[in-house]
Amino acid sequence: MSILICGSLAFDTIMVFKDQFKNHILPESIHKLSVAFYVPELRKEFGGTAGNIAYNLKLLDENPLIMATVGNDFSVYFDWLNQNGIDTQHIKEINNLYTA
Question: Which residues, 6+ apart, have CB-to-CB distance to 77 below 8 Å?
Fold first, then answer.
């Protein structure tokens, strides 16, 4: 039996800051906070609630079906879903938009 999952497919952008924010924020100036942080590591991971749920259901030998919309930058995620045996027939690509 298939399990239909209606939800989001997204790219999660993970930035790694190798310090603690409290070391760079002046408590006496919190009312006029203006900061920038150097992040030497940036990763793009596959995410979204539908993608995460479908992947974990597949690990449990279930048959997830994702119903979602994505943008024109989705091809790498699409390939990953197919490589993991996750049905993509109900995912609609919208050509003039980006995936969340």
Answer: 9, 11, 46, 51, 70, 99
